[in-house]
Amino acid sequence: MPITAHEIETLLRESFPQAKITVQGDDGAHFAAEVIDESFRGLNRVQQQRAVYTALKGRMDGSHGELHALALTTKAPA
Fold first, then answer.
1. 36: Cβ–Cβ under 8 A, 6 or more apart, which residues?
2. What's the whole-number average pLDDT of the chain?
3. pTM above 0.90, yes or no
């Protein structure tokens, strides 16, 4: 079953409740997301993106993951 942009945002919001989150994409498999959250301050980009992947709770895992591709931008607020 394809995942929606709204479902991705909901998953991210559970882990990053104060974040500015934007998710785009409508084909059910390929999305772009931007997550801006204070918890990213002091973390490098790999650490930030790992936190986001953890928040997605396995939806991108392996060939059977619901989410095939996610172009991800993460950063702390300016």
1. 19, 20, 21, 74, 75, 76, 77
2. 90
3. no
Query: Class for domain 5-75, per CATH?
Result: alpha beta
pLDDT in tens, 29-38: 789 999 999 9
How far is 35 from 73, CA to CA, in rounded Å? Answer: 6
The domain spans of the chain are: 5-75
Is the pLDDT assigned to residue 45 strictly greater than 80?
Answer: yes
Of residues 21, 58, 19, the one with CA closest to residue 40: 19
- DSSP assignment of the chain: ----HHHHHHHHHHH-TTSEEEEE--SSSEEEEEEE-GGGTT--HHHHHHHHHHHTTTTT-STT-S--EEEEEEE---
Whole-number Å distance between alpha carbons of 3 and 8:
7
